[in-house]
Structure formats: structure tokens, C-alpha cells
Here is the input.
Amino acid sequence: MCGIVGVYDKGNINAANAAYYGLVALQHRGQESAGIAINNDGIITCYKEMGFVNEVFDDKILSLLKGDMAIGHVRYSTSGSTFAANAQPIVIKYKNGNLALSHNGSLVNADLLRGQLEDQGMIFSTTTDTEVIAALIARNYKGDIIKAIQNTMEIIKGSYALTILTDNKLIGVRDGYGIRPLVLGKLENGYVLASESCALDTVGAQFIRDVRPGEILVIDKDGMKSIDYITNLPTKVCLFEHIYFARPDSIIDGISMYKARENAGRILAKEQPAIADTVLSVPDSGTPAAIGYANESGIPYSVGLIKNRYVGRTFIQPTQSMRELGVKLKLNPLKENIKGKRVVMVDDSIVRGTTSRKIVQALRDAGASEVHVRVSSPPVIGSCRYGIDTPTMEELIGANKTVESIREYIGADSLGYLSLEGLLAAVGSKGDGFCTACLNGDYPV
Amino acid sequence: MCGIVGVYDKGNINAANAAYYGLVALQHRGQESAGIAINNDGIITCYKEMGFVNEVFDDKILSLLKGDMAIGHVRYSTSGSTFAANAQPIVIKYKNGNLALSHNGSLVNADLLRGQLEDQGMIFSTTTDTEVIAALIARNYKGDIIKAIQNTMEIIKGSYALTILTDNKLIGVRDGYGIRPLVLGKLENGYVLASESCALDTVGAQFIRDVRPGEILVIDKDGMKSIDYITNLPTKVCLFEHIYFARPDSIIDGISMYKARENAGRILAKEQPAIADTVLSVPDSGTPAAIGYANESGIPYSVGLIKNRYVGRTFIQPTQSMRELGVKLKLNPLKENIKGKRVVMVDDSIVRGTTSRKIVQALRDAGASEVHVRVSSPPVIGSCRYGIDTPTMEELIGANKTVESIREYIGADSLGYLSLEGLLAAVGSKGDGFCTACLNGDYPV
Amino acid sequence: MCGIVGVYDKGNINAANAAYYGLVALQHRGQESAGIAINNDGIITCYKEMGFVNEVFDDKILSLLKGDMAIGHVRYSTSGSTFAANAQPIVIKYKNGNLALSHNGSLVNADLLRGQLEDQGMIFSTTTDTEVIAALIARNYKGDIIKAIQNTMEIIKGSYALTILTDNKLIGVRDGYGIRPLVLGKLENGYVLASESCALDTVGAQFIRDVRPGEILVIDKDGMKSIDYITNLPTKVCLFEHIYFARPDSIIDGISMYKARENAGRILAKEQPAIADTVLSVPDSGTPAAIGYANESGIPYSVGLIKNRYVGRTFIQPTQSMRELGVKLKLNPLKENIKGKRVVMVDDSIVRGTTSRKIVQALRDAGASEVHVRVSSPPVIGSCRYGIDTPTMEELIGANKTVESIREYIGADSLGYLSLEGLLAAVGSKGDGFCTACLNGDYPV
Amino acid sequence: MCGIVGVYDKGNINAANAAYYGLVALQHRGQESAGIAINNDGIITCYKEMGFVNEVFDDKILSLLKGDMAIGHVRYSTSGSTFAANAQPIVIKYKNGNLALSHNGSLVNADLLRGQLEDQGMIFSTTTDTEVIAALIARNYKGDIIKAIQNTMEIIKGSYALTILTDNKLIGVRDGYGIRPLVLGKLENGYVLASESCALDTVGAQFIRDVRPGEILVIDKDGMKSIDYITNLPTKVCLFEHIYFARPDSIIDGISMYKARENAGRILAKEQPAIADTVLSVPDSGTPAAIGYANESGIPYSVGLIKNRYVGRTFIQPTQSMRELGVKLKLNPLKENIKGKRVVMVDDSIVRGTTSRKIVQALRDAGASEVHVRVSSPPVIGSCRYGIDTPTMEELIGANKTVESIREYIGADSLGYLSLEGLLAAVGSKGDGFCTACLNGDYPV
Here is the structure.
């Protein structure tokens, strides 16, 4: 997972600031590295480092990034690389000048394309798909950058939302299936592109619309031009954005992430009812579904687990002896709302099952008489090939165990998943328009 | 406000780890500086710096702090000091060896006592009350440290919860009114003292009880000894701990902080009803009261404001031009739950009014048709003299405006505060046992 | 200017340590950035950052760089780039796997070659000549890396000393003129390549010989193979290495840097005698020549300027008001050896003249009755095209003023430069074998 | 060892800058911690941390230290403390306001005085002698700070040079024996006090004179007042300042440190002649004596060891395997000047003998046919009680071995020390005026 932004704020040489705030709004999409590339009268400068957005950038560095056109990127750890080599945006020099790219997604034919390019003598500085895209654009360039991008879109397969900076243009691209999101907003003197609409709110841009699957948006001093380039593919928006990744205050492809999750909770309450005294959520991601479950079922919602907001990345892990004492560093049960009660614990997904198991145990330790786990999505049975960092099949508990044996493993009194039909209904779909590969094995590309 | 801990884990030379985790659990009580003093066979070493607990300490520094007896401190900025001079614990050398102290609270006669000591030739290294307490203990020491502490308790006036490290003892002290909290927990081979019970959960200690007002707890290799030293004062626990400061998963003086706040919300719904479509909270502190209000009133609770968890201290503030764009950095309204609705917005307090004003405006921008503000505590009309960093009287909106003019200032359609009686009822009081100085001017000391 | 190393220490997975110590020995050749690339069983990892070698690397980072084959690089600031993008070694992925390169020197046809490659669709990640060399090797690769390097050497023009890491080889290359130095040393189980022999001493390697101009050295598990590939060019070793850049304890192309400078001082004493009481040096670089001048002339050598070793890069520059007080931060005159004396001040070069002017003034302030400046090299009249960061022609005082007007500008009583013949004699040349472009305009390439 | 400064620059609120530059000039006297206390209209603020002066202070911190009166301190590691607790200046609050002190020296009755003060109820925050001095001043204060200082001087025994900041005065104090140095300089609108005159040059102050043994200098807005308070003690200036510690460009008590060392070399050449081809120094401290030796003996001086200026504190130590390769990290022999030669190696002192042994071996490895070691001071046979961090008696080779067995240990062909008489002659003494305790056991206090 990654988050991308693009900003063109005509005449404002501090456009990097908007890119910075946009990336902070998208920080949940990637915490490993952050970067901004800026175009100052055709000169592209890029700064990127390992770390959170507010660690990578400070006043001094932002003040060095002058220009009115910028793109940015936050990156989730997609590989074991310890160092910054694969951070984005990437910047290349090619025959037409400079090109900076930020990419969210994953190509399925990257290795093949990379091999073909290398056979033609191409060199690469990173192991990213993104550099393959950049190399293809450079290779396909014959005097028209848009044509070069179009030719590249014909060759690359998989998911990609891109923000591209040329010597004088900001370009947004979304793959033909629309797997990864990209939205468009308006500034007084320009435009903002971002992975999610919450980034538009954060920089004070007005939401205009989603970039369409297969669309190329070209923004420069003359305004914005739209090219619907790939139009023959079925839309296959990633369902996991709606269940899990996107911020609840984002609206993607016309759907409120909060509402989708609350709906999922409501439908879950119908599909998987429980006799209980209270509905609890696993904060923060399970909260909207828990509220939906409570409202639909009539069982009162209450706060059951308190999250320590200060337990971050640099936190020192407890030693074995402390772990055995049952330390509650990150989540502490609120005994008042649990003790002696039959609780429904709502979470948005179960991936490996280890976290659920710990939480069920903590709820029991806090005195819960029964623990009924309800999950607002179906079991994950397959890995994502389009950019989400799901674990391997061996680790995916949903791919290896029945619901009953998962229940046993996590120690719940009952366990119920939302059905795929229920989830599709929650996002307003009649069964199409979404990629459900990881839930039913139906890989679109 | 500050947070303090004390740990004696007999024979475990890594007691600093438990102090560290305890301080992380108490991080909400002070973010300016953090420190730990450790006793290693009578040698006391202290490390303290400006910053969050996990910034101040890393593996290397913790590994240098060896010993089985430790105290710790997190400090809220109580003065303009830019540098670390006033960080705690403080460590002094005196005739009986070393003494380390962590203090939460504020003396009302500190200046007087300091002047008297200086007249007798005493020198001080800090401007803290804590060093005055330490100097008095040293001055009163005549061969018995407990007597020295008792003599000191007779002289100092105000609020104090203390953890003290001597050459061979861990001592906990709470002032005679019990204004600041202090709880006691049990480890397999020792004890833990902490400002709040959530710190006990975090280090895996079993909650035993609150330290009693006026009590001295002496913990050493022979076990624990309790001395109820000051017993003639009325209990005056700080109400603001319950409304605002303490973590919701803490239990202080027998009261669940979560329940107290939920109760406050319920009583508020009765005292200050509203005709509305939804109840929203100002996260995170307003959430328990909002849920209570919703449950009592029958108006559905929903999530109305999304908090960006990554907007921390090192965040770069937006420029004026970006502020005018209406950037939503920290709190973003969730339009789905607001648009076209009459909303009740529940917060735990209004101090200066500026934040409430911004949020009301943001709710209106998001389409709220009516905004009814409900506050789960009475107006703050006076400054705290016992350790809470309330603004000056000039800044306290409750001390200077009527409820109606506050409503007008923050732009709400209606505004209702919880009554003092209601608040006392929420914490289970029949009218006594609590300090209500900042709410009704009744200063106990 | 840059410094490069290459290490192959068969079976020692900590070869990065030797690269690190070698770079520390070469730190005087570049203080802007430092980097090491390591080959661990065919996997190349690279770490590079802005800063001194001992700032960029610490125990933890070195421990992550496992492998028995390494190259390293220190880089002098050759452009205005604020960020790390142009740091070396560079690592590329190409059809034959990975390739890491460290380069000292400068191509004169880099722009032309880069343009040709870009026209063929090549992309670049940096603006360095080094990446052009890498791209040409990749492009020329047809199954034999040595052939690819040879084909590249036929195309690139200018100065280059290279250390190259392939999936299983360490390769050293020196351009046909031998402009930049490269020496070869022996470890018990391997070899070391370095810009200067002092790096061999530092890592405990035995000096074997200089790499010959035009030679390719291929080192792998089967030993070392030498290919004298370009043999038809006249040797044109950079004279400035001998005058100025290389460490005095280095031996390059058979010449001791210390002896060359002492000889220069001796010949200078004959060419430009002075009637004086003492000979002083501008530390540290002027010291060998000053000692030579003193020994030849019979005028006693003494220490005249004390250098503050703690005034480094992060030093805060004095304000104007302090500058006017005549602060002596970096060099402080030793009045005892100056007061009332006629002094000869020996320096190795005068580039802009501003430093010399300040020192002459400081010597007069310290009471010198006469100041005779002697320079152990001829006036610099042209910029270097082969990798030394000389100022522009406008700034080069030797290119714009007569000796007499330079004397006047720096305020000396007399000024004498070493002749080019004298300098060549000092390095043992009969007039050939050296690049003298910056001294007489005779550019070899 | 420590270095201290005091600055009063009337009306210049950036006096901290001069203190900073002064401390940089004195950095050789202490590298463990650095600190500056500033007086801004009676308010004293202090910033101090572990590290070099230019690591501790940056532009931002200096800009927070506003005021026209400042003192500063650099501290050598005098104990095992890992943390900053004992850094100076120390600042105390006492009945008359604030007091900041910087101290160079060591009291011999500190423990006794500390015990007496503790018995009277005094508390201390550090384990330094300096806080004992501060406590005595506070205790003795009866309305007149000068009297309080005088009363304190009557009680404390040992060595002390002090700079003191009161609410409106800068005070300099030197102990009655004058063991530690302190000099006075003039700014246009104020004065500077410093441990050495090189600090005056660095801040552009004119040297006036040394502070006299037993003198108190009081500087405030009305000018400077001198009180010669203790006048009945013999002067006992530390000889090691002249041999070793002070910078060669400093003039202390009327003696040029450079000249003293050169003289010592000259006298050493007469006392301990050698038949040799060249005289080498151990850089940097042995250089003046080596030049003196060479000039007196007629044996030519040459550079024999090149010091790597980049091998600093953060340098990673080589592993055992690299050490065995004979790595030459810090000092590299210059073979040209050594090979086949009989060398005289001049150093300023031999403390433990381990470094000398390594260097002798390195010279032999570089081809020296004979190595004659000459030391420009007598053997150190006792520890210093007045502030110099000499090793314990067990480690002092001069206290435990004869000259012949030291020669054997270090592996030299011959070894000769300067006599005490010779050293006293070198500093211009007829046998009195200097502390020679560590050389002949004659402890003055």
C-alpha cells in the first residue's frame, strides 16, 4: 500500500507545503518512507527518506523545495529493504528532460517488462515497478509525453494510480480497472490529486470527482485536460480499501468509507446475530462496523478497549518476562464495560488470527462471560497481486482453517464473518464493480 | 499535571523497564519531559530529558539504568523553560546519602518555604516545588527518613503525590486531602506505585488499592509498611482528573473514569436535553460522555469527527494562506453523518472556547443544520492552585462570559453545561469528597 | 575530487570494515558524502549519505553490510545539490544483474554520451558522469563484462579511476592518461584498491604497485588478472595531487607526496630566495614545503600559525561585529615566533587570494616586520576539466592578475611562485608524464 | 582538566557568542561536556550538554541565550558518569538570587566541607567540588557577595580558577597558589576572562594580564575592581599546563607555551644528546620541543608521523583481526623520512608507555635503523591532586619503572628525559613559582 498526491498551485512556490499536508493525511497508507518532488520552472528536485512524513520533512527541508508543481508519496514496507533506495517519488532524466513519478499499485508483468528493457540495455537504479513504468515512458517517448504514457498503459498490466511530474505538467493516471483509487480536487488556482478525498479536505481543496478508470488527467498552466484512454475494461475497485485501508472520512468512487463500514456492521448484525449485553469494537478500524452492529441489533455499543496513542514505532518491545506478566501496552480492556457481560467484539478483518486471539483472552481476563467475535468482511483466502501487502498463503488463517477451527484458535464463544454478498451490498454494489480476488479467488488481471 | 511511578521488583535489575512502560501509560499526563531514577545497591542514577518517553529512552539508555528500585516522572509544561533544568525526578545528595523524588501536584506555600530555607543558607538547583520538599526532608532528617518525611508533610501545604527513592527504600506519599491520585499495585516480587491504575495494567501489576490521603507507604526488602499519617483532613480529590485528565481505563479512588464520564453524559442528557438527529463527540476525550448522552436520550451516537493520529508535536504549522483555505489537519468532519442533520456535539469541557468555535464552524461547513453543544462539566471559573495548568482568569471563557455569550461566541444553536450537582452525582458523590475549586471557587487549602 | 576504494577479502564477511577504514584514510579527498556497496554472494547492497565517513556509518549500519567484496566512495561537493541524490557508489540493475561503481574523475564527453543514450531511450537517476559510464557498460554488455568495460573505455574521454563491483568480481580501472591515481595492495586473502597508498596502510594492506594508466584489474575468487587495455596514450598524472590533494604519507606513481613537496620547497628557496629571520608554514598543507625551504635556505623553520582542530563543518560562523574584532578562530598567529621578525610564509598554492590576504594581515598584526610569501607551485591560470573543483576563471586570482598585483592584493612585501620547471623537477619529471593544464593551459584530452 | 570563560560585553545581548568562541578555543581542555550560563537583566539561564562545544550549541540554542554577561565551561571526563548531571556551569538559587559558577581545578578538602554542610541540612544536586563552593558562598552570604566569596576562599583548599555570574556581576577568582591559570582581556565595552590567552585572541579581546594568585576581579556596569585577597601563599603554577595542556599559542603567567616547549627541547638536546640523522615529533604536542631539539642539536627536523585529523571520538574501533594487520588509523609513519635512518623521536611526556611503545614499533616497521626517544619533561611519578586527570600510581610507568626498564618496555635504542631543573629553566624559573608535585612529590597544599 502507498499513498500518492499531486499538486499544481499556479504561482505558489510553496506547493510542497500542500503536498506535505496531503501526505500527512495519507500517512495511514504507508509509514516506511516519504518523499516529495517539486518542479521549479522545469527543474525537478526530490527529497525522500525513511520515516514518517513529519520526521522526513521539517521547515528547513520544505523551504528548500520551491516550486508550484509537486508530487508526493508515502510508502508501506513492501520488501525487506533496510535502506532508502526504493523510496518514492522516483526521478529520472531522459531525452525529454526530467520525469518524477509516484505510484500506488503493483504490476503483474513487471518482471517480464524489466527483463525486456534490460535486454535492450536499460539500467535501473531501484527494484520498483515504478521505475519500469518510468523506463517505458522514456522508451516510448517520441516527442509527445501523453502518447508515451498511453503507449505505456497498453503494455503494463496490474494496478496503478500515478501522479507524474514533467518539466511543465502534472499528470494523473488510473489503471483501466480502477483498482487503486485517485481523486481530484480544486484549489483556487490549481488542482490536487490524491489517493483519498481526506487529503483534499486537509489541504483545503474542493472535491471534484474521482479520476476514472483508464483516465489520464493532464494539468498545466493552461488548465486541465481529460483523456479517457482505456475504456474497455470492467471496473474492479479494491474492496479492501473500503473495508480496511482508506480513512473513514474519505469518499472513494462515490462511497463514504464510514458508511460502507457502518453498513457492513448492520448487515453483519442481520447475518450473524448474537445474544449479548454489549457491542465492543477493536479500535480504531472496527469502530464504524461496531456502531452499525449495535444500532441494527439494538445491543448497546460501548467502549471496551482503550488504545495507547503514544505506543508508536520507536517503542521498546517488552522482554519475555514482562510479556508473561500480561502487559497491556497498546490496548487495555475497560473492565467496567466488560466484567460479567456477554460481549460482541467487532473487528474489520482477521488476517493471521494472532491479534484476535490476544484480544479475546484479554476480554476474558477482564471478566467477559462470553465473547462473540464478528468480522465485517469475509475470510481472506488469497494474497493480493495488486499492491496490498497481505501475508503469504501459509500465514492467512482464512486460507487454511475452517471458521470453526478459527473460532477455536482465537478462543471465542462464537465467530461470524460477513458474507461476500453482504459486503458487496454494504458498498452499494449489485455484485460487480469490485475486485474480490482475495476473498473468492477471482483475479481480474 | 504530571505523572509519577515507583517500582520495586526485588532482584530484577531491569526495574527501569517497568518504570518506562508505566510512564508510557501515563504519557497523557505530561509530554514535555520524562525521567527515571534507579537505585542500584544504594547508588542512585537518574536520566531525564525533554521529550516523549519513547524519545527520551532507548534500549541503550535503559540498559545503563540497572537496579531493582526505580521511580519515574512525566512532566507537563508548567513554565516557559525551554531547557531540561526542571525535569524530574530530582536527585539530591544530603547527609543520609541520596534521595530521588517524583512529584505530582503543587504547593501553595512553596515560595514562603523556599525563602525560609534560603535564609538559612540553602541552595537550590531548580525552581520546582519538588526541590523544596527534598530540602525540607534533608533539613528534617535526624536519623530517620520516615520522621523526616512526616515533619515535612506537616509544613508543606497544597497537593502532592510523591514517589521517593532512598538508598534502600521506595516510598509513596499522598497529601492529606488526596488531591492528586496515587494507586498501589502488586508484582510477584514487589510493588508498583502510579498516578493511575492504567499504568498498573501496562506493567502487569495487580491493582491493590488507592494510596489513602495522608498515607505514607514504605516499601523495601522486608515488604510494605503503611503509615496513615495525616488523618484529620477532609478528602478533596480533584474532579478534573475524572472529567478530563485521567485515562478512561483508569480507576481512581474506586471510580471508573469511563463510567464517571458516561454517567456525566447521561445526567447531561437529562439536564440539558436537545432535539436532534445524532450525537457526536469531540474525540477522544468527549466520547464516553457522548455515548452516555446518546444512550440516555435515545438519539443515535455516531462518529462525526475523524482525528489524524499522525499530527503530533513536530508537525509543521500551516501558513496563513493555507489556514484560510480551511485546512482540516487534526480533525476532519465526517460529512455523511452530519450533512442535513441536527447534531448534538458533546465535549468534556470548554476552556478558552477557541477550539469549540472552530469545530462548530467545521460542522456547519459539513452541512449540519443545527449544532447543539453539550458540555459534560460545569463552566471553569477559576484557576487551579494544586497542579493543573489552567489558563489565566483572563483566558478562561467561563470566568468572563455568560453561557449565552459563550454560545454566541462559539456559534452554536444552543449550549448546555452539566451542573456541579450533576457532575458530583456522576462520580458517585453526595456533595463531598471532591475539590471543586475551579468550578465554584471553594479552595480547600 | 573524490576518493575511492575496493576491497576483496575472501571469506571475510566484514569486508565493509576495511572499506570504511580506507574511506576514513581518504576523507581529505571528499567530505560531502560517503558510501559503501557490498557484495554478499551476488547480492549488492549500498548505503550512502551526506556527511563524513564516521557520521554516515556506525556500528549498526556496518553490521548490516555483510559480504567479502566491497567498494566505497567519498565525494567532494562538485555541485550545488543539497540532497544525497548524487552520492556514490551508484548501483544499477541491468541485464547481467547488478553493478556498483565508484568513480574519481570527470568525463569531458559526458553530456554528449548522455544525450546519445537518452535518444536511445535510456533513463538516468542522477546527473553524474558515473551513471553514464554504468549505462554504457550495460549497453555494451553482450555476455562478457570485461569486454563491456573495454568497449566503454574506448568511448568515454576524460579522467577516471574506477572501482567496480559485479555479481562476482571486483574490478579496478584507470584511464589511459592515468590522470587520477589508483593503487593496489595485498591482504592475506585478497586485494585492496584505493586512490592513495595511505589507505592501504590504514587497512593493513601491503602496497604492491600503482594501477597502470589504461589498465583493467579483475579480482575474483580465482585471483587477480591484469589487462593493459589502453597503451597508446601519454601518461598525464595530475600535478595537483602531488602539490595539494594527496596525503603527504601517500606514494603515488612511485613518488612520495611528502618528498615532492619538500623538494618543491627546496627548489623554491633557490628560485625565490628571501632575506628573513624565520620560515613559517600555512598549516597543514604548506608544512613540507616550508621545511624544505628552511633546510635549503638555512633560515630556521618555526611554527607561526596554530590551527584549531575543533573548528569543523558545523561551526557557527561569527557575526559581522565579531569579525571586525579580528577573531582568530581557525588560525592563530604565534606571536613569539613572529614579533619583530622578517618572516617567509610558505603555502602550497594561492587560489582566490582571500585566505592569503587574511593571513598576511594576521602576521603583520602579530608584529612581523616583513612578510615574504612563497608559493610552492606556479599560479593557477585555468580550471580543471578532469575532476578537481577549481573555481571559475573569474575567481582564479592567478588567471586575472600579474604576480605584482597579487602581491599588492595580499599585502605581502614580496611574493614568489615556484616555476613549472621547478615543480616538475620536484616530482622527478624531465618535463613529461604530468597534466599541467591548469598551470599552462595544455589540456591533454 | 577543564576550561572556563567569562564575558561581560556591556549592552551586547549576544555575549553568549563570545563565550561560545572562547570555549571552542579552549576545547582541548575538555571534550566531555560544554555549557554556557547567561545573565539577562538578572535572570540567569544555563544550557549544558555532553559533547563538543559545536555539538552542544547551534544557532538556535545560542539565539535563546540572550544577555550581555556570560560564563562558560568545557569539561574533561573526570569520572565515570555517563550522563550530563555533572556538566558545568552550575546554577544555584539562594537567598540573594541566582549564582552561576564555572570551575577549573580540584579541592583537596571537598569531602570534608560537603560533609559539614550536609550535617547542617544542605542538599546537593551534583557530586562536584563546584557545588560545594557554591553552597559555601550561599551559606556565607550576609548581604555582600564579595565578602561571601572571600570567606569561602578562606575555607576551601586546593586549586581553583573560577568565573562567577551573579545577578549583576561577573567575578573571576584564582586560588592563592595560582595553580590553575586565568587571564584577563579587554573588549571595547567590556572584559573577558579565560583559562588561556588563546581564547582572548579567538574572541578578539586584547590581553591585559594574568589574574593574580589569590585575586578577586569584580566586573560590572561600573567597570572592573581588583581585590588581592590571598597574598601570603607562594605561587605554585602547574608545570603540566606548560608542558602539555595549554595551547602552544597561549601565554600564561608571562610565558609563551610554545617557547617553553621549544626551550625544553633545546635543553633536552644538551642534557640528552643523540647521534642521529633526523629529529621527528609525535604530533601535535611534541612538535615544538622536537623543533627545539633539532635546532639545538643541528640534526635536521622532519615530519615523521602523519596524523589523520578525521579520526575522532565517534570513530569505530577496529576489530582484533584488523588490529593484527597493523592498521595505522591515527598516526601513519612517513617512510621517506624514516627508512634507513637513525631517528630521534621527541614527545612531551610518557604516561603509561603504551602509545610510545606502539610508535617506536611503527617507526621500526617503517625502516628506522635506530630509535632514540627523548621526552621534554621528567618522569611523572605521582598523581595530581589539583585537577589534572593523571592515571593511578599503578598505571604511571614513571612511578613504577626505572628509565632503563621503560626504555626496554617501549623498545627504544635509547631513552632520555629532561631533568626537572632543565624543565624549570625552560619555563624561566630559578626553581620556584611552580607546582612540581607530580614530578618530585612536593605537594604544595
Remarks:
- Chain A touches chain C at residues 45-47, 64, 82-83, 85, 90-95, 114-115, 118-127, 131, 134-135, 138-139, 141 (CB under 8 Å).
- The two ends of chain A are 18 Å apart (CA to CA).
